[in-house]
Amino acid sequence: MAEPSRTEFALGTVCTVTLFDKGKDQIYNDIFNRLREIENLMSVNIPSSDISRINAAAGIEPVQAHEETIKVIKRSVFYAEVSDGAFDPTVGPVVSLWGIVNENQRIPDQTEIDEILPLVNWRNIDINLEANTVFLKYQGMALDLGAIAKGYAADEAVAIIRNTKVKQAIIDLGGNVILYGEKKDKSLWRVGIQNPLETRGIITGVVQVKEKTVVTSGVYERFFEQDGKRYHHIFSPWKGYPSDSGLLSVTIIADNSMEADALSTAVFVLGYERSKTLLDLFPDTEAIFIFEDMSIQTTSALNLTITDKAYFLK
Ligand code: FAD
Ligand code: MG
């Protein structure tokens, strides 16, 4: 029998929460309220959010922000540092220029890209933990937590569930998935891995995991096509172009969803070879790489079954 669940639009995406057995309305309400709370703090599309206010004051003055926002920005800086800037929360000007989120999608001129690239540099974020302020050093800089805040929100949803009698749950925030608890029959959770060349929900394979988070970054989530070429939403902070590291998607399987979210984006930008050093820093983390030639590679003996015959394990 299908478990009861609730689906709502939040964080710019479709969010589904499935609470097994003890899932009362109140718990669903608490979770979705929490997601909206985080969205109201961290969205670039809400003018009153901490992030929008910090961006509006770039190069002008430090802005006071909620402790939570500062915590996520601080973690973003950490992931930027360990990934040599492949993950960069100051990628905002690039995202805006390509119009990926505001629907004005277009290929910008190289001169436009050259103009904004100096603004993309996580080292120019000043965080003052005593005053609870964030300052972007140069006018035109802009934070974008789109590659990490959904993971944070998923972890926060689980924090709510931990305080209830619910023993098993699935949190799915637009593909950012957490499997909470051990299944009653002790079997592993089965999670579909998105087919990166199809629309959301069509899978290439199934991975079986214990209580884990499974987060994917890929070319399918947001993109536009021009002259037969796909331009997607995960950018190389160095080139200001959609990253072309030979991957269609990267799935990270880990314990913490914020970490998995940041790493999935970082690894996607770094590519298979260059991401090894980064992944070595996170020994409990597994990865599934899907390459442009439809081959699939995993970091270790992951329990992955390929269901779409167009794809093959390397
Ligand atoms: P990820 O790989 O996890 O993230 C990719 C996103 O991160 C890109 O879309 C870009 O925003 C950013 N990014 C790109 N390259 C890099 C890089 N190298 N380093 C760091 N970050 C990078 N979408 C809407 O359409 N409308 C909304 O109102 C809206 N509100 C949102 C509010 C919040 C708080 C969050 C977290 C997301 C929101 N979104 C909204 C969705 C957002 O725009 C992205 O589509 C989504 O977060 C991408 O997640 P992903 O898991 O697919 O990809
Ligand atoms: Mg991410």
In terms of topology, how is this protein built?
Elements: E1 5-10, E2 13-19, H1 25-42, H2 50-56, E3 63-64, H3 67-82, H4 92-98, H5 110-116, E4 125-128, E5 133-136, H6 149-162, E6 169-173, E7 176-180, E8 189-194, E9 203-209, E10 213-218, E11 223-226, E12 229-232, E13 247-254, H7 257-274, H8 276-280, E14 286-291, E15 295-298, E16 304-306, E17 312-313
Parallel strand pairs: 15-17
Antiparallel strand pairs: 1-2, 2-6, 3-5, 4-5, 6-7, 7-10, 8-9, 9-16, 10-13, 11-12, 13-14, 14-15
This protein binds flavin-adenine dinucleotide and magnesium ion.
Magnesium ion binds at residues 147, 217, 261-262, 264-265.
Q: Count the E strands.
A: 17
Sheet with most strands: 9 strands, mixed
How many helices? 8
Average pLDDT metric: 94
Structural class: alpha+beta
Ligand set: flavin-adenine dinucleotide, magnesium ion
Q: In terms of per-residue confidence, which ranges show pLDDT below 50 for 5 or more consecutive residues?
A: none
Which shape, going by the Cα principal axes?
Answer: globular
Strand content: 25-35%
Proportion of residues in helical segments: 25-40%
Quote the distance from N terminus to C terminus: 36 Å
Q: What is the radius of gyration computed over CA atoms, rounded to a whole number of angstroms?
A: 19 Å
* Biggest sheet: strand arrangement: 1-2-6-7-10-13-14-15-17
- Listing every helix as H and every strand as E from the N terminus to the C terminus, the arrangement reads EEHHEHHHEEHEEEEEEEEHHEEEE
